[in-house]
Amino acid sequence: xxxxxxxxxxxxxxxxxxxxxxxxxxxxxxxxxxxxxxxxxxxxxxxxxxxxxxxxxxxxxxxxxxxxxxxxxxxxxxxxxxxxxxxxxxxxxxxxxxxxxxxxxxxxxxxxxxxxxxxxxxxxxxxxxxxxxxxxxxxxxxxxxxxxxxxxxxxxxxxxxxxxxxxxxxxxxxxxxxxxxxxxxxxxxxxxxxxxxxxxxxxxxxxxxxxxxxxxxxxxxxxxxxxxxxxxxxxx
Length: 236
Known about the structure:
Layout: E1 2-7, H1 11-22, E2 27-33, H2 36-46, E3 55-59, H3 67-77, E4 82-87, H4 92-100, E5 105-108, H5 113-124, E6 129-130, H6 134-143, H7 146-154, H8 162-165, H9 169-179, H10 184-191, H11 195-209, H12 214-221, H13 225-234
Parallel strand pairs: 1-2, 1-3, 3-4, 4-5, 5-6
């Protein structure tokens, strides 16, 4: 049974979600909150009880404390509690910030009930879930800042941040392809290596950068794509 905490400032939304989710035999709502502060307090209260939530469904825009701020605190204090952010807005900035702070997924509230249930199950198992199109938009937003970063680099030394500089040349190649949205199979075909080798490189990249998954890696490194590409060209 996957235990859920519902957090939304609109009681009708919470009630509707509860009915939909508890129709699934493996999902159980163990608590409700109407803002981020209440959510944090409730997770703390339930954490060492049989009703400890496995997944927190957080609305992005709420009074008192919004979902982004609540995500940051919950993920810092309760590392084994997963956060799935919900919103009526397709807001790229919120996507990036929530994922940066540790949210495992971001879905729009008008998602099909079965899609939401499947996302909860995936997040519970540790996978990252984004509504269709949100990953691409998040990456596009990050990429839009690249010309600024590149321009700034033209007036100063083009030096990778320390975390990226310690990657090997091959890991930088793999990271560039991750930023482009390539799958492990596509990366393997592009670099003429096996998928197993790609997986090893991805694991090494995440460990070196102290990141959770390839989505975080792409969002972290996308601003430095020109630097990564240039560093490959100048690698001895």
